[in-house]
Give the backbone structure.
Amino acid sequence: MKLAKTSNCRHYQINSDSSPSSQIFPSNLSVLNLLNLPFRQLMDSEQRRKRKRSLRTSPSPHSHCGFSVRSLILCLSFIFVLLLLHRFQIGRASFHPVVIVSTLSHLSSSTSNSIRDYVSGRFMLALRVEDRILFPDHVLLMVSHINDRSEVLECVYGKDNGVEAANKLISRPVLSVDELDELRWVARCPLPPQNYSAEVNLRRPPRKESIVEGDEWQRKVHPAVHSWEMMAYAAALDRDSAVVFVKGLNLRPDRESDPRQFSCHFGTERDGRFALTTRAFSAAQEVVRCSLPKSIRMNPSKAHGIRVTVGLNSHFHANARASNHVLVPSVAKMLSPSYNSDQWKKNQGKHQLCVCTMVWNQASSLREWIMYHAWLGVERWFIYDNNSDDRTEEVIQELAFEAYNVSRHTWPWIKTQESGFSHCALRARDECKWVAFMDVDEFFYFPFPTRRRGGSNKPIVRGQNSLRTLVANFSSTNIGEIRTACHSYGPSGLNSPPSQGVTVGYTCRLQSPERHKSIVRPDVLDRTLLNVVHHFRLRKGFKYLNMPQSTAVINHYKYQVWEAFRAKFFRRVATYVADWQEKENEGSKDRAPGLGTEPIEPPNWPLQFCEVWDTGLRDFVLANLADPTTGLLPWERSLL
């Protein structure tokens, strides 16, 4: 009897006109035939009449069907799957999951690798190359969907159009991978071989193949390769304005330019167009500042991920139209604020003293430089890493683990130190009252003790946190910048790097100081962010202070042993300073006198640049920072 009831429920559900299932399945497809149930043998006509009367009066079939309703649902689901299989004919063709991808550049091998990694338990999205920038010594790819820096990637090159065997590709190991910001990663690839295109692509290695077929190369969807000679490369949201960093404007290095010749253009990745335009109201060096569009000004979170560029007009006038501007190619994207700065300052307070620097392969110098200045009172470090390939990142991570407040910021843009410092000034403003802009071979030093006020003859010996105390004395004045003279030190008779660090090892210097370095208040800087040789232009109403050499100096260990010094020939970070291998301004103070343009060690290099033996900082470090038991300095103990 139970079987008959189950059958009746199934019969009712399938044949009733009100059932939606009668509209889904073809009339020639019988559920009863599929189930092969002997329906008419199980129920006579009297039972059928009783069942119909019962169903008419019952408000819900569930009260009579019980478990049979679930059985019916399972059967219907099974039939529905069969119909889908029949309709899409999966068995007759290979099955490919539907994956929504951008039309921007990617290799099909990347997609297949993603699926393969998911099957093995590691799901990774297909690599997406958004932009390419051609530098003198590498190609920089801006990429999304990279998991981490340890991921193994290959650079893939295709031959130029018209070259024989254009369907062959070659691959090379990627030089480095780094996280640029919240949205993108950067991958550095070697320059393409001869007869190969700079339209470099990126993929996860397919086993160990080095040559792949050209059907993987989707040339028609590759974005253009940008030239580093003219490009908007970074952007920042600064309160009610947008700050855009642009290469190739050729503005004067030491003065503000007329902003009327520029405009800013904002667009999304969806359609690739720059739909919003505003006028520039300041321009200097490589920095253009524009007002924000009203929609972004009212809601800054809308700026997140928006691409921005600068428009140029060589025939500008006061009423220049934005439509007359030629747009600079851009890889610059704006990021919305990650926190409310006013609330952050209210809850956390500002650091009294921070330091910003830009480095390339300075891992061996970072520990001594940071630990020494931490003793003097520096609380926060911003390290802008300009394509280092040594242990720089590892050393920074170790210092952070040891409770030093240091962060590393990827800055892949070569010869842009001034712009990098402008960018850092914006980043540090909400965290720091004062920011020192120094190189990692420069050490602040109080050379002479001072006399106490009130007639006491007992000298004051500058000690721990003395630099922080110094700048704090000027925080409530109209002093916006403290400039300190630099003494340049030579190899001091050494032939190998000093084991205890530069502050102890190098003790002979030039007689006269060379230039100066600055500690600034980032909240009183001029809106242009113009800076030259580490000092900034200030807003009206604020002035700088030249620190007397009897109070403080900076020891600049500029001319070290040849092994360390020759690295300067690779490339210099400053925008407006010629590299030493270039035959330009060979007599400038920015060069080593008489060195020439090739990294060839001159005769008697260990004794060069030695006019005054000065052991002041060495004695100070050994007296104040060395362990009284072992004699080891902090940076020596850390290496044990």
In short: The two ends are 86 Å apart (CA to CA).
